[in-house]
Amino acid sequence: MTMDQNIKIFGAKQNNLKNLNVEFETGKITVVTGVSGSGKSSLVFDTLYAEGQRRYVETFSPYARQFLDRMDRPQVDRIEGVPPAIAIDQTNPVRTSRSTVGTMTEINDHLKLFFAREATLFCAHCGNPVRADTPSSIYETVQKRAKDLDDPRLFVTFSLFIPATLSVDSAKQTLDSQGFTKIYSQHQAKEGTTLEVVADRFRASRATKPRMIEAFETALKFGKGRLAIYAESDDETQCWRFSEKLSCDDCDRDYHKPTDATFSFNSPLGACETCRGFGRVIGVDYSLVIPDESLSLKDGAVKPWMTKTNRPCYEDMLKFARRDHIRVDIPYRDLSEDEKSWLINGEPGWKGNWNKQWYGIKHFFEWLESKAYKMHVRVLLSRYRNYQECPDCHGARLKPEALLWRVGSIKAAHVATDGLPFKRHKPHGATYSDETLNALPGLNLYDLMRLPLSRLLAFFETIATEKTFDEAGRMIVDEILTRLRYLVDVGVGYLTLDRQSRTLSGGEVQRVNLTTALGTSLVNTLFVLDEPSIGLHPRDMDRINHVMARLRDSGNTLVVVEHDPQVMLSADTIYDMGPGPGEKGGEIVFKGNPKELVNADTLTGQYLSGRRRVLASEAHRKAGPLSEMLTITGVSDHNLKNITAHFPIGLMSVVTGVSGSGKSTLIENVLVPALLKKKGLPTEAPGAFKEILNTDKIQAVHFIDQSPIGKTTRSNPSSYVGAFDAIRQLFAATDTAAARGYTAGTFSFNSGDGRCPVCGGNGFEHIEMQFLSDVYLRCSACNGTRYRPEILEVTIERHGKSLNIAQILDLSVSEACDFFSEDKAVISRLQPLREVGLDYIRLGQPVPTLSGGEAQRLKIAGFLAEKNSQASKNDLFIFDEPTTGLHFDDIDKLMRSLQELVDRGNTVIVIEHNLDVINCADWIIDLGPDGGENGGRVIVEGTLETLLENPRSHTARALASYRETLNRQKASPYFTETTAPRESAKATIPHDVIAIKGAKEHNLKNISVDIPHNRFTVVTGASGSGKSTLAFDIVFKEGQRRYLESLNAYARSIVQPASKPNVDSITGIAPTVAIEQRTSRGGRKSTVATMTELYHFLRLLYVKLGHHYCPDCNVEVAPKSFATIFSEVLTRFKGQSLWVLAPLVTRRKGIYTDLAKWALKKGYKELRVDGKFVSTEKFPKLARYKDHTIELPVASLDVSSENENHVKRALQEAITIGKGVLSVLTEKNEEIIFSTHRSCPVCGRSFPELDPRLFSYNSSMGWCPTCFGTGQIIEGFDENATGEERAWVDAPAKTCPTCHGERLNDIARAVRFAGLSISEVAHKTVREAREFFDTLTLSGREADIAEDALKEIRLRLAFLEKVGLGYLTLDRSSPSLSGGEAQRIRLASQLGSNLQGVCYILDEPTIGLHPRDNRKLLDSLKALVDKGNTLLVVEHDEDTIREADYVIDIGPGAGVRGGEVIAKGTVKDIMKNKRSLTGQYLTHPIEHTFVPHRLINDQTQWLTVKKPHLNNLRAAQIAIPLERLTVLTGVSGSGKSSFARGVLLPVLSETLSKKKPYQGELCEGIEGLEQIDRVLEVDQTPIGKTPRSCPATYIGFLDTIRKIYAATNEAQARGYGISRFSFNMKGGRCELCEGQGMRTIEMNFLPDVKVPCEACNGLRYNPETLEVLWKGKSIGEALAMDVDEAVDFFSTQSSVAHALKLMQDVGLGYLSLGQPSPTLSGGEAQRIKLVTELIKARDDIKRRGYRAPKTIYILDEPTVGLHMSDVEKLIAVLHRLVDAGNTVVVIEHNLDVMAQADWIIDMGPEGGDGGGQVVACGTPAQLLEKSTYTGKALSEFKKSHDALN
User: Fold this and answer.
1) Which uninterrupted H or E stretch holds 514?
2) Cβ distance 1637 to 1656 under 8 Å?
3) Are 1637 and 1587 in contact, with CB atoms under 8 Å apart?
4) Residue 1189 gets which letter from DSSP?
5) Is 555 helix (H, G, I), strand (E, B) or coil?
6) What is the per-residue pLDDT across 1492-1515, written as a single tens digit (0 to 9) for each?
7) pTM tops 0.70, yes or no
8) Is the peptide bond before 757 cis (omega within 30 degrees of 0)?
9) Which of 934, 629, 913 is nearest to 926 (CA)?
10) Of 138, 266, 934, 1242, which is most buried by a Cβ count within 10 Å?
């Protein structure tokens, strides 16, 4: 499936892009190429990918978005049609050794599943297969053994343990009564007696199979899963033991049944407990302790003992060495093994006697570890520690038991390992021999993880042909094979699954990620690739092309940045960018297909066609027979086969070979560290080699890899090559600088006081925007120049031009070379930049903005510049794939730079696949012939001619073809065709469905279903049937999880959904967005603004742009640094005369004579008192009781650049005396105050830095201290209450007198933006707020900062208004919202992202919506589908189901009776299906007479509420008939919830509790209370928050069940009381899980894991308690029964049976009695509460003996989450409540409930301000005649149902 709409970019201006308009075709491969720095990455990554990734990431919560790698919003006018984007680039975000190739590719996930299903266990002691026995398998084994022993007499027994507290005789009597009359043996012990009870005895030849099977079943049942068979023959008696558990019969060892987590080193269940799944532990690395083995012990071989502190250890070593005759004057490497052991481990028999025994290095470090609480010791230890193999798992990462499981056959193991130096892994603790190990079939998981992927593929291909799997097993094998083939196809078949991700090269990372993208099966996704050819040999290049074609043909779009000709020429479309780099680029110079590009007159076209060549005219240097060689011998690290390599000194050598042949191992792992170690430099230990020769010919070693050269904008080309230091010296030498005292440091923008104080020398201001993209603004103070204005007044003149330091930094290298042509110190540093082709970049260009090719050449220029300043030669430069990211033209410049290094007498070694580089080499080392175990040999070593003569070399064949092309000067087949014909994009059938296979999550019964793309699909079915499991736990979580794999590991740990669903496979899935149902509207602190995230953006605006005012003085508060104050004074008052004043007293009473004396003593002649200057010698007498302000005049001065130092000293003195505050008095007598504190300059009150929490109702930093953020005074509400608790939602409240309902403290309310406080903005309606923000005009810095936040605010306000909620105020409290309003707010907060190509998943979006509003919602949802999205909706609403394009009906029942796909297809298909419950109700809906069950007449008693006042209520009175079923309905927002939950419930509660007339603000009175005893709201809040709570405990019948078990004979014999059967109390409960049945396993590196308790198997009780049975079941088993089963089981117990029957009646028969409350839905919780109320009514009648209390029940939308069949059951229960004499008031929109009501109250006529009145009331039949929205809907409902029935 492909998307219909192309991706269109308008006005792209990112970096150097020239306002581009570009269109990328969806479903195609587009290659973007061009010279380095031309704008490729700016277009593809910074613009296209950034927008696609940003839009999808913004569907996450603001909290999660703070941790995600959000791309900055690109500089582009607009982008249309962009799908969610995933980048497959060279960066490796994983830095943990827990991530491996196996985890990256998800092969480990599939291996876990495969081992859990298919592996065989082999005993750790004997090596025999272990399996769980069944009666049938025992029968087969016994028959075979009995035949071998000539049919012995068999005794089938089970063990019974009798505690010492019980009588053995009574136990035997009990056994005898049960039919067990024979005891085979009896064993006495202190704890008790063990009886071997005979279940049956027979000879195998005579007993029938049924008898034997029955005997085995009986013995297993009473023996707790174990039995023993004693075989008696004439010669001997044998004991054959069997177990239902995993147990080795021969060794009597038990094993645990595995789960997939058993085989995961990232799970606490599977990870090795010693290393926690890392495979390594940290310990002392003796190669760091003895870094130079050429030194003797006497000369300091042991490095840590050569310090002054540890010198005594050195002396001890020499002393004991003399005693033990250890040689101390020869190199350490020449010591014998015994001598080395003595040095490291100490003398044999070490007993801890430090003075008389030699302790060795090992015990020295053990002693240090005991002192590790000291900081200096920890620092010392860190220098000598390193990771080492785990001593327990030996690198396997897994627990030993996991490694006892094996898969595959002997043949498969041989196929995988033959020819490899491979030793099978023996698990820790296994005692069988190596011969036994090698004879075992198959391999364990660690064996598989160590195989090269190509061999692993062969292993599974063998398995696939040898064994027949079931469907699920076959799918797992197919998934593993698919991923392995992808990996081998892209040329990484030499990798292993346990290779750590962080050790992969950039090219390897990208290729692994590419196969991961293929394995995810995502569709409708934009994949952006950054040079996938990197690291690939030309032989392997076509593999990449095929992989990308597969991704495209799966329905995805690929945009590839690439320079490799083979990739370019396999594209559907090519964009060539240029025409030059940097500012000369940013345009598209060509667009077309590959053939057109070859003939195009662009740089790319010229190189492709051979018209231009790389370093075409250069001759190669020759290595003569006498040439000196750097030689390394005996290299055998990794796959290298004991090779010797020679590198000519003074020439350029290229090391090449196919991927995985050993290039990086030879150079990076061995040669570089060996050279560094030889030079005495710190390095990691080199890989295995014999020796290295001629290192004395090399002076220094420089290894240049792909690491970035600078991460901050402070780094630039001029500073990197050292030119900037020389330039600053020139500026410091000018006359102006000398006169002002400026030094070279003054002209630095990294330090000193010359840089701009506002931006700190960055030239821009970085504004962190939390969950929005950060904003970067040109500094308003220096305008981006980085310096203070005074510094820019200093200039130097050359060639008639006068430039300041900022203008110099803005010069290009070429311009700067011309300008400084006579300054040798500068030109010697700049010239190398020219030589490497970087003459166009600017001196001050931030290094992070350079392209990869530019950065690579800048590194070379840095070395060249270093050489210019030194006379040395003979350095060795080693480059790792320097052509990464380089265009042909850039490679030409690079090669000229490398030749320049060689010309200067240096040696260059390059690891490279690029044929242009190889063609320019003086010497070639070609490794191979293949990768992995088939590589590691030197195929060619010599000149290019030697290479070309070798027929075995893949490099030679590629190079020969390339040279032929260049000589012909036209494109050869090598360039114009790939090595195999490319598959057509149309050849593959599009993925037009989400295909789910084998879903077994929760109650789903291995279902398979297809969900069509770009359609509106409804999933429906009985409540609890598994709908949400399918939609959310499988589709949503898997779609989001697969997208999240593209994010970094830290981000995934924040937003990672639950673990992978239990499903065999999901294909064709697009990235998903969930809009879930939250039954809670929020607490007291939740508002419309917080629910829609509007408030998050408002808080952000106020933090970043708010103006802080003092609440007391109304004066703005703004702190400034001293440097900022100094700069502002120099700039603002330049040329003026000022008084600099220091404040001493501010508005304080007193006479202050002592202050004048102090000033006079300090030499100050005047003070400024109340605005007048007075003499300190003749200080006047001040009025004691009058407020005075006194300031100290520090200096009177003229502000100028020449007087800069005087100004600075005066300001510094004033701010010191004024304790951070000073003021200046201008010539116009204006006083300006400056402060380094965030405090009021008038009253001195200090304030905190603006923080988002300052504006939060939930933070003590922001909330009003009186009402704690609620805006209301609520009795009992304190700072510890969250407001979410149910008690506070309905509690009576009054407006807070402190904040007047604004919720925030005075500091927060005093911050203003656009003249308003945040509370004033929040008090606006949605409509008013939209108008305010639409007309808000900002400019400059404020506009740039606010841009993103304002877009989000306007978008959300527009959507709220669009869904009809314009009348709500932003600070409207969530509990006061109607259900419909709350639902639409949730939709508005999620649907504003405007994504395309995603799968939206909604949970019952029609909840709380009146039929009139349903239509609006359905239209909005269908608009999403029209944009190219998939819509999956869990819904019961009949109108929604009928509107769907496709319906999936799950059933047939709920819970364990559900989980099957009953029907699927169109609505008509569902209606035809006789098994479909939904179809039955659609075809034959609930029948209604529209006649009340109970008449409303003159005898009816009424409850009347007079003039209710709350929110929008305006009715004169609202009357409710008593002992009737009343439905309160109306359009969303009409006032239903305000009346029922906001007025009726609290008024009745207060009146009935106080038993006096109501006197409050909610209404003017209430009549008819005489017939009411109590009021109760039955809502959908959870019945418990912990697994300890369950239906049995909430309803209350668990106590009765406990009494039943306590009354059994067994319990009484054991002395067990009722408390013994409580899972909340010690004694009877399982102590491992503390009665919860589940155990939480905590692990510091992963989320907590909940697993069934292995001790009680989820039954909550300990084994002794579970031995007490009633009717054959323990209490744990009874609680595990579902209600339907329990009704019969407890039929004799009337109280329990009655409760269970009621649960059946309300449709909860599928629930288990002990089901944990947190797993219940809101609808299930509500119905359990209804059952509880029905039971209470019955109990009250029994207890009181006269009548049940008359109760008013208030229910808020009880049909939420209910299927039509469950609605029918609910209606019946509501009628039962009314029949018992109660009154039921239901807020509801469901038309079935309305039709069954006795009375309907219709509110409206509209929502919000247009509602609050009773527009109609009457019986259902009377409402049919009304013209209200409800009347019309009810009338249409009757007509449609009459037509069907």
Assistant:
1) helix 506-520
2) yes
3) yes
4) E
5) coil
6) 889 899 899 999 999 999 888 999
7) no
8) no
9) 913
10) 138
